[in-house]
Amino acid sequence: MAASTDPDRENDVDDQFRALLEGLRTTLPGVQVLMAFLLILPLQGEFATLGTIERGVYYTAFLSAAVSSVLLIAPSVHQRMRSPRTGVERHSRRHLMTAVRLAITGTALLAVALGAAVYLVSSLVYDVTAAAAATAVVAGLVLWAWAYLPLVAFGPQHHSDRLRSPEREQGPAGRRRP
């Protein structure tokens, strides 16, 4: 299959890739702070008192945050590796879709890491019941803010919410539609 030479399509892919990278710039600091917390936790005195379940939750949080970091950073690395000096086409629709999948998977793993970290800290501060409740609240908030809002509340069925372009507002003979 030949690569598209349509400049509008190439600009569209570049714009979408740029928007993806801008979004990742806001996500990465959160994952990095969580990763830093998880890296120093085993060095704390309280860590030795963790039971088997808490250690498993810690390791789930740690691995999820580590893999999330790798996946969320990957599109930015792609941007650098596919520079004009390499001679490799900078962006393609396939590359964009791969970067989006990496970002979504990384974000899902960030949600797992957040939930595990909330459980772990809550179980140390309170008890298992409070930890489970706090984790359920955070998981529900993540599902609402990261999945429900973009996919359902602002999904494709809400066409009336879209901003109208001036071209769509113009009727026959260039007159504005009411």
Q: What characterizes the major β-sheet?
A: none
* Unreliable runs: none
Structural class of the secondary elements? mainly alpha
Number of strands: 0
Q: What overall geometry do the principal axes of the alpha carbons give?
A: elongated
Radius of gyration: 22 Å
What fraction strand? Answer: under 5%
Helix content: over 70%
- Kindly report how far apart the N and C termini lie: 45 Å
List the total number of helices. Answer: 5
- What is the element string, with H for helices and E for strands? HHHHH
Q: What is the residue-averaged pLDDT?
A: 82
Compact description:
With 178 residues, this protein is an all-alpha fold. 71% of the residues lie in helices and 0% in strands.
Task: Give the SSE layout.
Blueprint: H1 7-40, H2 52-81, H3 93-125, H4 128-153, H5 166-169
Helix pairs in contact: 1-2, 1-3, 2-3, 3-4
Textual characterization of the structure:
The chain is mainly alpha-helical. The chain has a domain at 7-109. It has five helices and no strands. The protein has helices at residues 7-40, 52-81, 93-125, 128-153, 166-169. It is elongated, with a radius of gyration of 22 Å. The termini are far apart. The model has no long low-confidence stretch (mean pLDDT 82).
Give descriptors for this structure.
178 residues, mainly alpha, 71% helix, elongated
